Amino acid sequence: MALMLTAVDAQPVAEARLLGSIDVKRGPIGDIAVDGNWIVATNSGGESVSVLSARMLQVEATVPVAGEPFAVTTAGGRAFVAASAATYDAVSAIDARTKTFLASLPLDLDVVSVAAGPDGRRLFVAGTRPDSADLAIVDVESGRVDTVAVADPEDIVGAVRVASDARRVYVATSDAERGKLTAVDVAKARIVGVVPTVAPIQDFVLSGDGGVAYVLGRDPEYGGVVDTIDTARRRLLTSAWIGGHPTQFALGSDGNRLYIVDVDRVAVLCPITNEIVDAILVGANPSCVATSPDGGRLYVADYSGVVTAFAIPIPSSFGELVDAEAIAVVRELEPAV
């Protein structure tokens, strides 16, 4: 049986302060993304996304999309929304500033996750076909799609993330026992490296410079685990077993905190010490989290359709940014057991 996170495990240190919440009133929220002044939330049962003011936490508009939206990413003032329909899956573009629908691109792919390059000119869509698990690289202006097979058809494809320089994109895939993180060279549209993980992957995030990947896994017997990977050397640095049933997480802007969705709370993990330092309760079952660009706010959406904002410590509270070398040094200094 998987372990469960408890208040005793959390060692609360009052890192989060409740700012407020709003009921979007469009049913369960499957995913959220923050782009400057706006929060974009997918209304899973409402064939729409809601655009909220990040500062005031107010719904500014609800924009219809084709199909049931389940994933969203933002870049360059636009939101890119993955949605599933009866006949095909598609990615739709929305102008977050004017809160208007721009266009929709149907894909010959059962879409699972979507990410955008920093300038919003390219989309990276992970999904499956009958005979493969693929990464689709989409040129937003022309609609051209290049495809890279990243796994065997029996594997489950998961999250996709883009390095800050947009030269590498990473795709998570898993089988019943383990996962792997696959690096793809964007310009050449080919795989350049694979790193195995200790458990099937639920989600992963990249550090600001792309040098570190934090991979959230979940083992059927032992529960949640966070793997820390040096992406340049393609090696596993640490594995922190946290138990519970985590599903998704976000990285603080300074790289010193991971905010992990786990059943009825958001656990806060320090990736340097691999310790859970806080547990944030939201009064409902959280579905997803995101942090503000300045690192001062954490937004938590839940299955009842509510978005809650918390104030969290800004980067200067925790000192220098985390990098792969710092984590490796801490790992080497750990006492033998």
Question: Your description of this structure?
Answer:
There is one protein chain. It contains two helices and 28 strands. β11 (122-129) and β12 (132-139) form a beta hairpin. The chain is mainly β. The relative contact order is 0.14. It has a single domain (7-333), classed as Methylamine Dehydrogenase, Chain H, CATH 2.130.10.10. The model is unreliable at 1-12, 317-321 and 329-337 (pLDDT under 50). The chain has a four-stranded antiparallel beta sheet, with no helix packed on it.
How is the secondary structure organized here?
Layout: H1 7-10, E1 17-23, E2 29-35, E3 38-43, E4 48-53, E5 58-64, E6 68-75, E7 78-84, E8 89-95, E9 100-107, E10 110-116, E11 122-129, E12 132-139, E13 145-151, E14 156-162, E15 168-174, E16 179-185, E17 190-197, E18 201-206, E19 212-219, E20 223-230, E21 235-243, E22 246-251, E23 258-262, E24 265-270, E25 275-281, E26 286-291, E27 297-302, E28 306-311, H2 324-333
Antiparallel strand pairs: 1-28, 2-3, 3-4, 4-5, 6-7, 7-8, 8-9, 10-11, 11-12, 12-13, 14-15, 15-16, 16-17, 18-19, 19-20, 20-21, 22-23, 23-24, 24-25, 26-27, 27-28
